[in-house]
Amino acid sequence: MPAEKVISELIKEYGDSILRMCYIYLKDYHLAEDVVQETFLQVYNNYDSFRQQSSVKTWITRIAVNLCKNQMRTRWFSVKKEEEFPILSYTEDYDGVIDREQLLTAIGNLRPKYREAVLLFYYQELSIKEIAGLLNKKESTVKVRLKRAREQLKQELKEDYFYE
Q: pTM of whole model > 0.90?
């Protein structure tokens, strides 16, 4: 199958989830779109050299995460990150059901290493082992980051909904 067709299929299959991950990671939709575009350009340019030591999804996600990290290192981003994470059409729900936008806002407020673990585990549905390989960390480190992220999310969401 020609490379263009393969890339087109990969974009259809993974484009939306990579965009969501990049958006939550970078907190800026336009930057996320740019990173996704660059991700698939790199996939296109390097598809022949993909060694299939991991799944295609893991490989694409690694590229996207690395590009997000590179973006976060830029001077422009370091100035912009001081801004608060955008409120995403907030609606209060006092019945104990967590509002999706409120959850995304809470995830966006996590420290980057915890946000990264949550995004890769829950949004990209990667295993602990895959995340550890992608981040070059031990599996135990990934587990601890997920545990701490869950604790912080639970605490923040409790405060938002006035639970005891």
A: no
